TrEMBL record:
It comes from Himantopus himantopus (Black-winged stilt). Coiled coil: none annotated. One of its GO terms (cellular component) is membrane. Substrate binds at residues 88-89. Belongs to the protein-tyrosine phosphatase family. Non-receptor class myotubularin subfamily. PANTHER family: MYOTUBULARIN-RELATED, MYOTUBULARIN-RELATED PROTEIN 10. InterPro entries: Myotubularin, Myotubularin-like_Pase_dom, Prot-tyrosine_phosphatase-like. It comes from the Eukaryota. The lineage of its organism: Eukaryota, Metazoa, Chordata, Craniata, Vertebrata. SUPFAM superfamilies: (Phosphotyrosine protein) phosphatases II. This is MTMRA protein.
Length: 129
């Protein structure tokens, strides 16, 4: 995938041919990326959606098992669909534009309460939180 970094962590139990085969199943061929690891055993893995709904469960289970086997603590996997709980890039960009307009274009002669309310309405602080 041209949108993935040149090098990334891959669970050792996934063979190269499996990775190549599975990559066609993901939107944009964006294979799962092991992005972050915590000493308590938590790992953050980013993964694009799988195109074929019928294959989704099998591929998802295979990759999750490989991640679990590769992790030292072998803890259970918790999956979260971030598309449902995080803003998309367009919402973030719109919030940033509103923030810039508030900070650059709006005179600060307004009351502090009104300015803070306007800041809240941009959703910028909520999104960066």
């Amino acid at each position: 995938s041209p949108s993935l970094p040149e090098y990334f962590v891959v669970p050792s139990s996934l063979a190269d041919q499996d990775l190549k085969l599975y990559s066609y199943s993901f939107i944009g061929r964006r294979m799962p990326l092991w992005s972050w690891n915590h000493p308590n055993g938590s790992a953050l893995v980013r993964m694009a959606n799988i195109k074929d709904v019928l294959q989704q469960r099998r591929i998802d289970q295979r990759i999750c098992n490989a991640i679990t086997r590769s992790h030292p603590l072998r803890s259970d996997i918790y999956k979260s669909d971030l598309d449902k709980c995080l803003p998309n890039i367009q919402e973030i960009q719109a919030a940033h534009i509103k923030l810039k307009q508030l900070c650059v274009n709006e005179p600060f002669e307004e009351t502090e309460e009104k300015w803070l309310s306007s800041l809240e309405n941009t959703h910028w602080l909520e999104y960066i939180r």
